[in-house]
Design brief:
Blueprint: E1 2-4, H1 9-21, E2 28-32, H2 37-44, H3 68-77, E3 82-84, H4 86-100, H5 110-117, H6 138-144
Parallel strand pairs: 1-2, 2-3
Helix pairs in contact: 1-3, 4-5
Length: 150
């Protein structure tokens, strides 16, 4: 399962439930490049903040570090973190709309972006992707769909 991740709350809830109900399922947090504080923290075994600076259209996922409570939960239940760039997020937003008629904000489309871009190899696997949040600026949504930014 691929889950968009900022501070880690959504990932914590999903991964905790799946650990109890389907412990064989692996849950991967997906974060924007440069804002992968959960992935870095999981790898280090302790909370790590990302360096200041940088930007991403995935504004809902730009937490500088995971929450203390959510990291404690996620360190027990999440598999390795994944990252996606803004271009992949835009493509995922377009695919979500074109294929499923879903309006997804950039951060909410991050998990789909990981599957579509190859950040996560989906070949031969059953993969569940969480798309969350439809809070997207109209101009950015038009840009994702291939039109001029407004």
């Amino acid at each position: 399962m691929l889950v968009p991740c900022g501070g880690g709350g959504l990932a914590a809830g999903i991964s905790t439930a799946l650990a109890a109900l389907m412990p064989a399922v692996r849950v991967h947090p997906v974060e924007p490049v440069g804002f992968d504080s959960t992935g870095r923290s999981l790898k280090a075994g302790e909370i790590r903040a990302v360096p200041a600076g940088g930007d991403s259209i995935c504004d809902s996922l730009l937490a500088p570090k995971p929450g203390t409570l959510t990291f404690a939960m996620n360190s027990a239940t999440l598999s390795g973190g994944l990252t996606i760039d803004d271009a992949a997020a835009l493509q995922a937003m377009a695919t979500a709309f074109d294929a499923f008629k879903l309006v997804a904000e950039p951060g909410g489309a991050a998990a789909l972006a990981a599957a579509l871009s190859g950040a996560f190899d989906v070949r031969g696997k059953t993969v569940v992707v969480v798309c969350s949040g439809g809070n997207v600026d109209a101009g950015l949504f038009v840009r994702a769909l291939g039109g001029p930014a407004g």
